[in-house]
Amino acid sequence: MNEPEFIAALRSLPLHPGARNLDDDCALITIGGETLVINHEMMAEDTHFLPDADMADVAWKLVASNLSDLAAKGAEPIGVLLGHSLGRDDARFVKGLKEALVAFGVSLLGGDTVAATGASTFAMTAIGRATHHPVPARRGARVGDAIYVTGTVGRAMLGFEGAAEHRDAFNRPQPRIIEGLALAPVVTAMMDVSDGLLLDCWRMANLNRVTFAIDPSTVPVADRARADECMRWGDDYELLFTASHTATLPVHAHRIGAVIPSGIAPLLLGGAFMVSSANLGYQHG
Amino acid sequence: MNEPEFIAALRSLPLHPGARNLDDDCALITIGGETLVINHEMMAEDTHFLPDADMADVAWKLVASNLSDLAAKGAEPIGVLLGHSLGRDDARFVKGLKEALVAFGVSLLGGDTVAATGASTFAMTAIGRATHHPVPARRGARVGDAIYVTGTVGRAMLGFEGAAEHRDAFNRPQPRIIEGLALAPVVTAMMDVSDGLLLDCWRMANLNRVTFAIDPSTVPVADRARADECMRWGDDYELLFTASHTATLPVHAHRIGAVIPSGIAPLLLGGAFMVSSANLGYQHG
Q1: Is 3.40.50.40 the CATH number for B3-130?
Q2: pLDDT in tens, A109-167
Q3: ipTM of the assembly?
Q4: What is the pTM of this model?
Q5: A81 to chain B: closest CA residue
Q6: CATH 2.30.30.110 fits B146-274, yes or no
Q7: What whole-number distance in Å separates Cα of residue A80 and Cα of residue A103?
Q8: Domain residue spans in chain A?
Q9: Cβ B285–A115 below 8 Å, yes or no?
Q10: Contact (CB<8Å) B94/A10
Q11: B3: which chain A residues are within 8 Å (Cβ-Cβ)?
């Protein structure tokens, strides 16, 4: 099975209401009047990191990518659980994990350790506390809303290629926790951009049965000459969100388009409909 | 690093109070007057299952082993998050996952899917609601307490070897959820027996700085002629607990010994001190 087929099969299982039909990145558990926001991510050698990667960077990215999903829900992080495959440079892994936890003010809750053979896989579950209700979701974008993205896309791509000033954007990404907390009361829908801006626009529009009309000239890209690639590369961990076009944003973000009624495709890019999500970003499996 | 070294290194990280110094199997998060009990387990090919294993059984065991840890905390399961490596028999995996969730009355909260190369690794985070405070822990055994175990140990071993009547004990273990809920108000300490009864006795005694005096003739074993092996094999998922020797137990369990002041070793087995935990059970990495 590929990923969409597998997720479709999972929808035949008993789903918790907080799973929201597996349409979102995080699950919600409401208990004692509070809502917990829970995210689980895996990182696999060869797929998410190269065998010669610095394990400190791998650990950092594992934390950052999890917290990025919490950020998109406006959640205040509580802690993380780690699933660790022993046998790589475990000391470097612990060092990077510590640096990330300290940098983001998050603590370790627990986890599990396995002796694994072959390629390594790491898992993390991050748990946060929702600060705004309703909790922002991928669903919620309305026709007439404006579309925004924080920061600049394409920095991780340039960092991966070796550009010194962007290397940290690839190796040590910063989840937009503060921005997510501030934006939660303002947005109508929000997600983090981990698989490429255009692909994530396509997905969000598709889920909401609307079309995202994106003006590429307004998208903040790290290299204007390579704008198409910047909008398709993943790993940037910025926030993509929709909000009323009259809303006053509490943090800086770039307005990159507008939500319009569903057209022949979920994405209208510079006047051209993108019927397929192929070639819009990174897709698993 | 091996597992104890890695866990020791993790203790230098910022730990959540609910991590309880990483001495326990589950983390606790108290929010809105409720306490959530959270467990994370990984299963790796070659280590936890053979390459030719039925993936339906692997999925079932992943759920069961997670819920077994919740059972030892007297927690009522809420749901699970799955970390799945695509590429094995994914349809069988979903089938076994569904059977386990239905059997145990638990729902899927979410998760993540990765395309992985080589040996597969699966991860699961289980979340439950504590039903009794204080939440039972590995810590808490007191000198004078009696030591108990539910069920029979060694069944998973016989099932692994092919004995038809014990095959389900290995492939489709039953976490002691109901027993854990009933026992939570009575026990002074509790854990599940996943790595072998004697090793887990040794660990619990060591953590509590006491000695567990175990009378092997009272240990319920699946094959009396192979009692030593039955007490050392893992995967049985019974509950090991201590309670006042005058306590009335709400469920059936076997009294296998008594907690005595710390002697020269954490385990006194039929009159012989076990100084080392080597050869008492299954140890990772």
Answers
A1: no
A2: 999 999 877 788 999 999 999 999 999 999 999 999 999 999 999 999 999 999 999 99
A3: 0.93
A4: 0.94
A5: B40
A6: no
A7: 14
A8: 3-130, 146-274
A9: yes
A10: yes
A11: 86, 113, 115
